[in-house]
Amino acid sequence: MDVSALQKVRYAYKPKLPACLSQDIDTISIEFGVPTESVADQQDLKALFKNSYGKPLAMCVSGKNDKIHKELKVGVILSGGQAPGGHNVIAGLFDGLRKGNAASKLYGFLGGPSGLINNKVVELTDEIIDMYRNTGGFDIIGSGRTKIETPEQFAASYETVEKLGLNAVVVVGGDDSNTNAALLAEYFTEKGSSAQVIGCPKTIDGDLKNEYIETSFGHDTACKTYSELIGNIERDANSAKKYWHFIKLMGRAASHIALECALQTQPNVCFISEEVEAKKISLNQVVEQICQSVIKRAEKGDNFGVVLIPEGLVEFIPEMKTLIGELNDIIADNKEEFAEKSSFIDQLYWLEPRLSVASCKFLNTLPPEIAKELLVDRDPHGNVQVSRIETEKLLMDMVERRLAKLKKEGVYKGKFSALGHFFGYEGRCAFPSNFDADYCYSLGFCAFVLIAFGLTGYLSSVRNLVKPAVEWIVGGVPLTMMMNMEQRHGAKKPVIKKALVKLNDRPFLTFAENRDNWAVTTSFLFPGSIQYFGPPEVCDQTTKTLILEKT
Predict the structure, then answer these.
(1) What are the C-alpha distances in Å from 462 to residues 27, 210, 466, 478?
(2) pTM listed for this prediction
(3) Of residues 551 and 507, which shows the higher confidence score?
(4) Domain match, 172 and 292 both
(5) Is 26 a catalytic residue?
(6) Does one domain contain both 121 and 259?
């Protein structure tokens, strides 16, 4: 297989491990804390997870053990969207298993959770693992978004585990995937199976976090990748001095990516969806904020700038959220009748008497291309596919129209020319940063230790991440501890609670303290590409967000 020079060198990189995992494997032990509670809905979750609710925190410590050398057969699943570092989770798990017992085996389920359901599996060998160490992507076994939720799917998963004689399954995924892991752990125990389930926290969005999961893997690399691109665009904008760049970034439910990229690059404008929702900021107010930056910069002769927009922003704007909710309900209740309306105009006429007056009026103010996306692109449940809404183009269009009006009124005298971008897939499979390479390897190795000690229903945890890797703290967090009950498709279901940007924490407050200056003054930062070789302060640092949170 042909490989690039960087890929060849990255194969040889030796991830750094915390002290408790790098010592003689015979001296790794587990220490338990007090029983835990879920973040909310304790009674409901206790009833649903009769066998796994309330387990204690687990921490890796030095000590004697007689379990670490047990021969094990483990399966691993990559679930959901790709995130840099997934291959190193598998490599860490594989190396841990082999250090414990050279006869232990690791199997990869192909194509995500469906591989477990359908028993599509491959044994992962030294040769395979060595081809993927420290590389991006999930292509070693592929990923998928299948949810294990029906009785038939749970039964098929159980049958696969029994057929293969697995001691454990490791689920590498985000909040939904690890909710699935908790349900699988409960199901296996209920069936009398000794098979364990351990999760690993993955999502570039950064919304799987708490006191014990300081960050989800891949977030660091993705933010550094996007920030490099944003910095390049800022440099270009400052060179050409004639374009405003509107950049949409991944992050539907939470704005962690937008916030981190803003801290790394200091754009003129950046929106945080959580603030927009909390302050009930309207679409017109969003547009006005951009216009004010454009006008003030134009007064200084700076007819250029950069605006960062989180992917899910439109869902947090009050009137847009109301409109989307009404459309989802109306179209879901009248699927066949709506399907008969073949043209956009027919759809609008049909919707008009069914929408509230405010939503109808708002829909008619939107650019036709955006309105069409609200009506045409529906997911399998009939809901708007928000990620497909070109928010950057919506804002560009509305800002342009507003500025044209202000120019007629003599308020604005500058020139406005805008370009739109969406940075998403560019960051999901990048070569992992040294931080993510080390962090993911430690998560995988920790998952092996949790398995060796017979734990199930836990999420692999590595903390103290702003310190050098040798000082990281390793252990396991009960999955039920992170859960609450939420309304999903008409029913209350257990889910791991998403971690949103906190408006009273240092990362957001630091951004808020500086954004008025950035809006007017060209304060761009240019992070450059991810560095793999050089001093630790350049190569091994984690996100600015995490540093602000923990120091």
Answers:
(1) 19, 12, 11, 14
(2) 0.96
(3) 507
(4) no
(5) no
(6) no
